[in-house]
Amino acid sequence: MAAGSPTVLRSTPGALSSRLLEERPANLPGQLFVHGGRQPSRFCAVLFEPQGPRLLQLETPACVQRLVGSGQPIWLRVMGLSDGDRIRAMLEPLEVPPVLLPPTLEVPQRPRVDCLGDALLVVLHRLGFARDPLHLLSAQVGFLLLPHRLITFEEAPSGEAFPQLTEWLAQQRGCGDDHDLDDILHYLVDEVLDALFPMLEHISNRLDDLEEAVLRDPRPGQLSRAFSHRSNLRTIRSQVWPLRHQIRVLLRQRQQLLGPEALSGFQDMGELVELLFDSTELLRHQCDAITQAYAASVGNRMNQVMKTLAILTSIFAPLTFIAGIYGMNFEHMPELRWRYGYALVVLIMLIVALLQAWLLARRGWFEDWTTPR
Known about the structure:
There is one protein chain. This protein is an alpha+beta fold and 373 residues long. The protein has helices spanning 30-34, 61-69, 84-91, 102-105, 163-170, 178-194, 196-216, 220-253, 260-325, 341-362, and strands spanning 42-49, 52-58, 74-79, 112-116, 119-129, 136-146, 149-154. The chain has two domains: 30-295, Beta Polymerase, domain 2, CATH 3.30.460.20; 300-362, Magnesium transport protein CorA, transmembrane region (Methane Monooxygenase Hydroxylase, Chain G, domain 1). The protein has a seven-stranded mixed beta sheet, sandwiched between helices. A hairpin with a 2-residue loop joins strand 6 (136-146) and strand 7.
C-alpha cells in the first residue's frame, strides 16, 4: 500500500467502540495532578531516513505533512491528551481513520489488543507505585500501528517519551522500513508489561515480611495492609486478564503489518502475560494466607486470655467458697471462738490454691501458646 493511500479497515460491529472503565485503575500520577488531570499535549516524531532515525519536534500539522511527503516510515509520539482537537489536527496528514481515535484519546480505557484490517490498536495502563507503596498510580498508553505509521499516545509522560528506546534509536545507522515499526511496537508493549515484574517482586517481599509479623505479633494495621496489597494485585490482574485472549486472537489472525520477528515477539508476550497472571494469582493467595494467619494468631491469643481467666477462676472458686462459709455470722458456729481459726483457714486456703496450681501446671495449662517459636 502506498504511503499516501488511505487505510482500509475491515472491522466487526462494535470492535472500535470506546470501552471506558467505570473508574481509573489507580490514582493519578503527579504529572496529571499538576495539570488538573489533563496534561498539555506535545508532539515529536522519529523519521526513519536512509542515514538513520532522526528525532524531530513538531508544532503544527504542516510539520507532519512534510514528514508524510518524505515517504519514510514515521513514529509519531503524542505526549499528553488534554487538547483533543489539536491532536486530531496533527494526525490528519497521516490519514488516521477517525474511528480509531476514541479508544486512544478517551481515558480510562479497558486494556485491549485489537487487529482491525490494516490497523493494530493496543491500549494499556502504565502502573507504578506512589511514594507510599500501598498506593498505585496509572497512566494510559495507546499504540496505533498503520502502514508506514506508528503512533503512540501517552497520557502522562515524564519528560521524553520512551527515553531508553529513543536513546537507542539515536545510535542506529541505516535505512528503516515498516518492519522496524512493528518491532518498535512490540518493544514498547513489552516495556510496559515488564515494568509489572519489579512491582510484583516488591509486593512479594512486603507480603513475606507481613506474614512473619502476623505470626509473631498480630496487629490490626497488618490486616489493613494485607487488604491494600490484595486490592493492588486485583488492579494488576484486571490489566493483564483481557490480554490473554486478545494476544492469542492476534496471533491467529496473522496481521500483515507484523513481520516474523514481531510475531515471534508477540508469542513471547503471550507467555509473559500468562506468567504475570499466574504470579498475580499466587500473590493473591498469599494475601488470603496472611488473612487466615492473622485470624489464627488472634484466635490463639484470645484462647490464651480465656485460658488465663479459667485458671484464675478455677483457683479462686474454692477459696471463695471457703471464705463464703466463714463469712456467715450465725451465732452457733464453733469455729468463731477458735483461737487459731483465722490462721488455720488462711493456711487451708493457701494449700488448696497451691494444690490446684500444681495440678493445672502438670496438665500444661500455664504454657503460653502465643510465644513466638
